[in-house]
């Protein structure tokens, strides 16, 4: 849960957006490559996270799984707080990924 979601703006817009998106299902989840269908649990998710300047508009939101049966994760909760941490750790992680990539390449 990010600061953004506690704001009046989001609580006012979210139910309206949910209705709009519900009418378009099935749609691809905003946080994973899998479809969200009308008979699944889902919530309004951001395409561009609020922490990145994303606005609570129809264009910037879409359905996100409450629990994706393929990913086995809560798609609507993977952004926000974790995004901040991911941004902080990105440099470190990229370095590590490049190392493992080079490591694999040696054995090809
Ligand atoms: Zn998903
Ligand atoms: Zn998924």
One letter per element, helices H and strands E, the order comes to HHEEEEH
Tell me what portion of residues adopts beta-strand conformation.
5-15%
- Overall radius of gyration: 17 Å
- Fraction of helical residues: 40-55%
Shape: globular
End-to-end gap: 43 Å
Structural class: alpha+beta
Bound molecules: zinc ion
Unreliable stretches covering 5 or more consecutive residues: none
The count of strands amounts to 4
Q: Sheet bearing the most strands, described?
A: 2 strands, antiparallel
Average pLDDT works out at 79
As laid out across the biggest beta sheet, the strand order is 1-2
| Count of helical regions | 3
Number of domains: 1
Write the layout of secondary structure elements.
Blueprint: H1 3-6, H2 8-22, E1 27-28, E2 35-36, E3 42-46, E4 61-65, H3 81-106
Antiparallel strand pairs: 1-2, 3-4
The chain binds zinc ion (2 copies).
One zinc ion is lined by residues 29, 32, 34, 68, 70-71.
What report would you give on this structure?
This protein has 108 residues and is an alpha+beta fold. 42% of the residues lie in helices and 13% in strands. It has one domain. It is globular. The model has no long low-confidence stretch (mean pLDDT 79). The structure holds zinc ion (ZN) (2 copies). One zinc ion binds at residues 29, 32, 34, 68, 70-71. The site of one zinc ion has 9 residues, from strand 4. Residues 86-108 are annotated as: Disordered. Residues 92-102 have a biased composition (Basic and acidic residues). This is HNH endonuclease.
